Fold this protein.
Amino acid sequence: MRNKAVVLGANYYVGLSIIRCLGREGVHVVAVDYSEESRYGAKSKYLSEKHLAPHYKENPEGLLNFLIDFSKKQDKKPVLYPGADPYVEFIDKYFDELKEHYLFPMDRKGFWTEVMDKYRMSLLCHKHGVKVPETINSKEENLIERVRDEIKYPCIIKPMDSASFVKAYRRKVFIINSEEELIDKVNMIHKDGHGITIQRIIPGPEENCYCYDAYLNQDSKVTHYTSAYKIRQWPNNFGASTYAKQSWIPELHDICKPFLEAIGFKGFAEIELKRDVNTGVIYLIEVNVRTINFNEMLYKSGLNFPYIAYLEMTDKLPEPKSVEYETGYVFHYMYEDLFAIRGYLKSGQMSLGKIIKDNTFKKVHSTWSWEDPGPGLYFVGTIASKVFRRVLGKE
């Protein structure tokens, strides 16, 4: 009997991808969610078991007790996977209790949260000689003067906790064009209780936004890796990938491998970077510590990161592997990509000809799969239902 895998969050395509990556390898996969609403990942044929549990924010101790009780009923410790950042924060908060009952690669309480925190990450980068955009904590003295002298306008306001920020404002960043706008937004966000930083905007097109995806073993050594770049994202310029292409960019390996190993990271990580179009310098933007949105593209490219973690936790790590060539695969999240395309055309950042040309790549879809159609059909149904209710004025 193999260890079960427990995925927190099947209501988004990241959780769905984890389910598929493990289920294809014959792993007994369990989905845990707080609601049946939009739970399209639970429609996958690769899911063996599903449960509803208390909400991670509304009743975190209830969720903790549910997970502990579930683990106690198993013959072997399950392997635990967070499907979104709030679940990462939940695991970090109850790290010791969960570590006693579940398997997951990280072995340091609070480290995931530290790496996710934009300002604390910038301090780690400075310590290890990795370039980051000029960043100022919004609580520092002489903020307005420092932004005017060191960062200049336009600049961006970035959250320390992305999940709560996005939930509050429905955006990942605020673009700031003047001192008056900065004062207004900082005061508003401080009043709402969110931690933020002010950061310089790195100039350059979307294709200058890179991703380095890697797995580090229990000795904090990179064993599996590749890279990619964004073609389109939503919201435009400061969002998540809606169309991204796997591509080998050697410079990223030279920057990211030493950094991840130096900070003692374990498990899967993705580093987002951007190349300054004027200077050619590559800056680290942020680090994702859980499975990312184009995981299905990484799987198609030959790196099944969820299963790599599963094997290391339950048996032994597979042989090291890197994809240091271009596979031709692109990730496509059609739903949000429609909004992205509209935005690029409206702003003049992209031409229709470029968008059509880019459409010729080999696509790996976020949700749709001919071998596992249930989630895609369910997702389309939920979108159609929302549109129908909006037309009728019920939403």
About this structure: The chain has 15 helices and 16 strands. Residues 389 and 395 are 6 Å apart (CA to CA). The longest helix spans residues 374-391. The chain has a mean pLDDT of 94.
